[in-house]
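Make up an example, fold above all:
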Amino acid sequence: MAVPKQLQERIQKLRAQIDDLRYRYHVLNDPEVTDAMYDGLMDELRKIEAEYPEIVTPDSPTQRVAGKPLEKFEKVVHSVPQWSFNDAFEKKRH
């Protein structure tokens, strides 16, 4: 199924915006939007990619973990894995 040009442009804009927000949050420690706003952008991108799986690329924010953390954070080893795959704003449990 062909992806409409307008939707391709939206996908590019979403990916760039999410990448920028991740960088600001994880590297600069300067979040620009609320978590709910960020999750909304990610949800929109996930829905588009689900409808058009041929546009999913390895560099899509839906396919990788966010940016490099600040150097001041110490590494710790948890006794239990600390997974964060669920959306904190979604009532449904995965």
Notes: The first helix runs from residue 5 to 26. The chain has a mean pLDDT of 85.
